[in-house]
Amino acid sequence: MASSCAACKGSGDRKKKKQQKKPKCELIGYESLPEWLKDNEFIHGYYRCEWPMRETILSIFSIHNETLNVWSHLVGFLLFLCLTVLTAMVIPSDGISGTFEDASSARSYWGDLMSMANMTEALKHEAAAACLLLPPATTDLSENEEKIPTSCPPNTSSSPSHHHVALIQEDAGRAPRAADAASTDPITRWPLFAYLCGAMVCLLTSSACHLVLCHSERTAYVTLRLDYAGIAALIVTSFYPVVYYSFLCHPGLQRLYMGFITAFGASAVTASLVPAFQAPELRPLRAALFSLMGVSGFVPVAHKLVLYGGRQEAVVTAGFEALMGALYGLGAAVYALRVPERWFPGRFDLVGHSHQLFHLFVIAGAYAHYLGGVEYLRWRDADKCW
Ligand SMILES: [Zn+2]
Asked: Are 126 and 217 members of one domain?
């Protein structure tokens, strides 16, 4: 197909190529773009168009209107890679990991992670837990517990039931259940790692899409579908820790919600395979479909609050989920409305246009969801089913 935009000079002729080592590629304006590259008329300049693949890939190091779109999600990918390594190393896995041989060491690693999040709060809760849960002198301590000198009044109750311990601990906030050694075996981590993988897939495919989409219409066709699949992967895997840990004691609901969102995500990816789905005028529909998929997360979160609304852990995790929803919602709105470039066309071509803001909202929302996931582990490591 003949190029309809200014291609790189010296990229097609082999003899000339030898004389001129690097083809010179130029950035062009919106009006010079072929129809398949026209997406946002409020971004006027700095477009790459049908550059050779080598030059397209190397343009990651040059300035054009996609540079910050590529780098924002690439940095986001690296952030989530670090979070994955951190989660694997700092949080004990499955209670049988070779790294964390017993529940005692697991608890100390928990302390490390939580102190990073909020050391003051953790210390406050540790102190409250120590005061409220210190067993009477006549009660046998578990082999993993240490006697700690304390000025707290002695606990004069007879050996408390598990339920009684849970109630006392609830009063003590989100403190680790130090006295309940039997419940300190960590719960499985796969739903949180599935989410981290989904986030990394989304961020990496998005970054790659922004980098190479301009190479050819065919490349755009393939990478845009990869991009939609990545977004669907992020949304679907975002449900997994929420549903798995919220309904840990309700396997029927676990299967129902996980099956629903997985089927929804697969349907969205299938729908996005339809070429007409890419048309610029369908931008609000694209935003709406993926937003609807995300908004459906409201159902299991509300259901969790109905089941566990009295527990601080349920409220805290729902708070992170609400924050994530707000950030994604803002991002989707900015994406669909194309602000601020709509108000000042051509002024935000390189920095500050809606897609860059959308990327930042996505990273912030995904990070809020990760923090919620860590709260789930904390909750379910201490309390499995009760
Ligand atoms: Zn993007």
From this structure: no
pLDDT score of 31 more than 90: yes
Distance (angstroms) between ligand 1 centre and the Cα of 98 equals 40
Angle at 186 between CA 86 and CA 150, to 5 degrees: 95
Query: Domain range spanning residue 34?
Result: 14-59
Binding-site members for Zn(2+) are 210, 355, 359
Task: Tell how far the Cα of 288 is from the centroid of ligand 1, in angstroms.
Answer: 16
Q: Confidence class of residue 80 from pLDDT cuts 50, 70 and 90?
A: very high
Q: What is the pTM of this model?
A: 0.72
Q: Are 374 and 186 in contact (CB under 8 A)?
A: no
Share of the chain above pLDDT 90, in %: 50
For residue 368, what pLDDT band results from cuts at 50, 70 and 90?
A: very high
CA of 69 to the centre of ligand 1 (A): 6
Q: How many Å lie between the centroid of ligand 1 and the Cα of residue 111?
A: 37
**What are the tens digits of pLDDT across the range 372-382?**
999 999 999 88
β-partners of residue 9 are: 24
Q: Please give the span between the terminal C-alpha atoms of the chain, in angstroms, as a whole number.
A: 65
Cis peptide before 280 (omega within 30 of 0): no
**Residue 364, domain CATH:** 1.20.1070.10
Helix (H/G/I), strand (E/B), else coil: 47: strand
Residue 96 within any structural domain of the chain: no
For residues 299 and 231, state if they share a domain: yes
Task: Give the model's pLDDT for residue 274.
Answer: 78
**Cβ atoms of 212 and 348 closer than 8 Å:** no
Mapping DSSP to helix (H, G, I), strand (E, B) and coil, where does residue 353 land?
coil
Give residue 235 CA to ligand 1 midpoint distance, Å. Answer: 15
Question: Do the beta carbons of residue 49 and residue 32 sit within 8 Å?
Answer: yes
